[in-house]
């Protein structure tokens, strides 16, 4: 059985992958980064290689304890299969439901950990939601909301591509699993539009795919309503419905990706909004618990990092820390909602979230 977790390979060295490698190296892991076009001056060993060449990748990964994929979701099943066959631990950031199901199936015979969905949503938001839920005697609803947005939006979409356009389009098109009236259901993306307040700022939220991870399976029979929605500046949802549904760009994903890449450049000053709310019975009384935060871009290791980059990277790295330190199982599938919030925050990388709250100092962000 694989228990040791000291040498890790990080596949994909974009903004998130580079920070994942940096944070893990700082945390004492021996890190090798692999990318076809790696950035210069990273504080860990880097190899230039086509990560989609799985045959060559098998040789490169020899001797590694864990594989961490920061690649587009469509590559993750192949990467996970390499890790599974070699008896390595596996971690990724996917929000894709089909990918997660394939990895779950592999986990039944895994020698190490299979831990997809270790990012922000799914990932951190599920850890937060589960922590709120365990405070209740019985549950009525779990509502989870996350938005990664520019601090200074422009244009009608009010958005910036600080994340993979493939991932954005994927979650805007695929159906969404929810629990409604105590039963698991599939609902369309870009539906259930509602307004929400975060630190006095009016945002809209709507259904998107994958944000709940495996929570519907975990909470079926325990809660009447469970759903995840993405937060955006008002007006975004209507325009995306027009582009994807009325113009049928949902049937031309590559074209949709190209249009978004051309129209929505990344920005340095972004903010991640997190809003989790749970209702239920506590001590014989209907109660509501909330976790609401606005996480800004911040400095880490002497460099400025976007909010979406550090929230995603820190969450993944905290889970790796917990597996390495024995706070999580060393074998099988790890559900994000089964990760203890207090132990997560006690890790070196989980504590970055708490440090960011101190940096934000309760500041509000207004469009």
How would you describe the overall organization of this protein?
By secondary structure, the chain is α/β, with parallel strands linked by helices. The chain folds into 2 domains: 7-121 and 309-356, Rossmann fold (3-Layer(aba) Sandwich), CATH 3.40.50.720; 124-303, Dihydrodipicolinate Reductase, domain 2. The chain is built from 12 helices and 17 strands. The strands form 4 sheets. The protein has a 7-stranded parallel beta sheet, sandwiched between helices. Residues 362-367 have low confidence and may be disordered.
Protein topology:
Elements: E1 7-11, H1 15-26, E2 30-35, E3 45-48, H2 54-60, E4 66-69, H3 76-86, E5 89-92, H4 97-107, E6 113-115, H5 124-133, E7 138-150, H6 165-173, E8 176-180, E9 183-187, E10 194-198, E11 201-207, H7 215-219, E12 225-232, H8 236-246, H9 253-263, E13 270-282, E14 285-296, E15 298-300, E16 303-305, H10 307-325, E17 332-333, H11 341-346, H12 351-360
Parallel strand pairs: 1-2, 1-4, 2-3, 4-5, 5-6, 6-17, 7-12
Antiparallel strand pairs: 7-13, 8-9, 10-11, 11-12, 13-14, 15-16
Helix pairs in contact: 1-10, 3-4, 6-9
């Amino acid at each position: 059985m694989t228990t040791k977790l000291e040498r890790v390979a990080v596949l994909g060295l974009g903004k998130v992958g580079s920070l994942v490698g940096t944070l893990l190296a700082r945390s004492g892991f021996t890190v090798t980064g692999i990318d076809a076009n790696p950035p210069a001056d990273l504080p860990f060993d880097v190899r230039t290689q086509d990560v989609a060449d799985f045959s060559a990748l098998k040789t490169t990964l020899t001797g590694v304890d864990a594989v961490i994929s920061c690649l587009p979701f469509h590559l993750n099943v192949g990467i996970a299969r390499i890790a599974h066959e070699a008896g390595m631990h596996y971690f990724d950031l996917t929000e894709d439901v089909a990918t997660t199901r394939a990895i779950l199936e592999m986990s039944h015979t895994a020698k190490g950990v299979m831990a997809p969905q270790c990012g922000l949503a799914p990932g951190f938001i599920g850890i937060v939601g589960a922590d709120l839920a365990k405070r209740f005697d019985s549950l009525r609803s779990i509502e989870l909301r996350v938005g990664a947005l520019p601090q200074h939006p422009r244009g009608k979409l009010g958005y910036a591509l600080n994340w993979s356009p493939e991932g954005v389009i994927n979650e805007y098109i695929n159906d969404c699993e929810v629990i409604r009236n105590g039963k698991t259901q599939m609902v369309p993306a870009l539906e259930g539009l509602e307004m929400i307040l975060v630190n006095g700022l009016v945002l809209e939220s709507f259904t998107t795919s994958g944000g709940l991870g495996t929570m519907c399976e975990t909470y079926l029979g325990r809660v009447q309503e469970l759903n995840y929605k993405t937060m955006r500046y008002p007006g975004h949802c209507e325009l995306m419905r027009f582009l994807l549904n009325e113009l049928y760009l949902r049937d031309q994903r590559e074209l949709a990706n190209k249009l978004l890449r051309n129209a929505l450049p990344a920005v340095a000053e972004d903010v991640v909004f997190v809003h989790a709310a749970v209702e239920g019975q506590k001590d014989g009384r209907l109660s509501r618990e909330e976790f609401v935060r606005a996480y800004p871009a911040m400095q880490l290791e002497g460099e400025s990092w976007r909010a979406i980059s550090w929230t995603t990277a820190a969450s993944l790295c905290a889970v790796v820390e917990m597996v390495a330190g024995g706070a999580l199982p060393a074998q099988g599938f790890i559900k994000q909602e089964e990760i203890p919030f207090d132990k997560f925050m006690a890790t070196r990388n989980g504590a970055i979230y708490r440090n960011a709250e101190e940096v934000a100092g309760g500041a509000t962000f207004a469009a």
